[in-house]
Amino acid sequence: MFRCVLAVEVGKASHIGCVRLVNEDAIFIGTRLFAVADGMGGHAAGDVASRTALEVLAGLDAGPVSCDGLRARVVAANEAVVQYGRSHPQGLGLGTTVAGIALITENGAPHWAVFNIGDSRVYHLGDGLVRQVTVDHSEVQELVAAGLISRREARRHPSRHIVTRAIGEWPAPLLDVVVVPAIAGHRWLITSDGLTAEIEDDEIALRLGAGEPAADTAAQLVAAALEAGGHDNVSVIVVDVTDTQGGPPAPAEQTTPRDRIEPP
Ligand code: MN
User: Fold this and answer.
1) Quick one: which H or E segment has residue 75?
2) 98-113, pLDDT tens digit by residue?
3) Which of 85, 124, 133, 189 has its CA 20 to 30 A from that of 102?
4) Residues 101, 110: contact at Cβ < 8 Å?
């Protein structure tokens, strides 16, 4: 029987950056779950928010994951952050993004549930093509979607830091989930905006596709962000799928209802 644990090679790097006084990003690396969170909020509450959210999400890694289970954990993570905010008035306005990939089984085959809230991102490299899979929940993303500004302009726009969904809101924000087959040879990048605000997609794609090991690629991406100014904390996880240990995905026999927003 198929066991839903893949062979992966993982690289990670997180840096406070060149300007900030606290690293409010957090990273979780498990066997089924890989996630980045980017905290916000005054008086060092941002790092509590990102850490708290990932601590709750980490419970998913103990056993098989489902999309429903993922959603439930995100709601629980949201509650934990909201609760912390209520009991610590100095943490007013605290919140965090979250983005990641979680290994699930669909139609008997391994798949990744790619998820996000806020403007941390997941990129995918397969068949030589790099694509951003998640859609930012941010004011500038809405302007890009409306055709009012370009992706490049979004990176310099005054509203570029304003997210439209975050963990720590009440009621809980909607989680976007995209489910894709897990395929050996594919590479995933999970990143906070400290990378994507500093360097162009072209450069991210170039470094992801250079054929370097995951750990080296993660280090190089963070180094590039620091070289470009390092205005924010920057955190990345690179996941290489080396073996899926399962047969080819069986075709779906029925519709699979999902709450999701179509990528651009
Ligand atoms: Mn950030």
Assistant:
1) helix 67-87
2) 999 999 999 889 999 9
3) 85
4) no
**Mean per-residue pLDDT for 228-249?**
86
Q: How many angstroms separate the alpha carbon of residue 175 from the centre of ligand 1?
A: 19
Tracing tokens 């943490």 back to the chain, one arrives at 91
Res. 244 pLDDT band, cuts 50 70 90: confident
Residue 103 in tokens? 């290994």
What is the DSSP-derived secondary structure letter of residue 12?
E
230 CA distance to ligand 1 middle (Å): 10
Cβ atoms 216, 9 nearer than 8 A: no
Per-residue pLDDT at 250: 52
Q: Could you give the CA distance from residue 36 to residue 235 in angstroms, rounded to a whole number? A: 7
The token pair that represents 94 in the structure block: 């605290």
Secondary structure letter of residue 184 according to DSSP: T
Write out the DSSP string of 90-111: GGTT-EE-EEEEEEEEETTEEE
Give me ligand 1 centre to Cα 41, in Å.
11
SS3 call for 159 = coil
How far away, in angstroms, is 103 Cα from ligand 1 center? 25
**For residue 191, how far is its CA from the centre of ligand 1 (angstroms)?**
9
Residue with tokens 């179509």, as numbered in its chain: 262
Residue 155 DSSP code? T
Reported as a pLDDT band with limits 50, 70 and 90, residue 264 is very low
CA distance 254 to 251: 9
CA of 194 to the centre of ligand 1 (A): 5
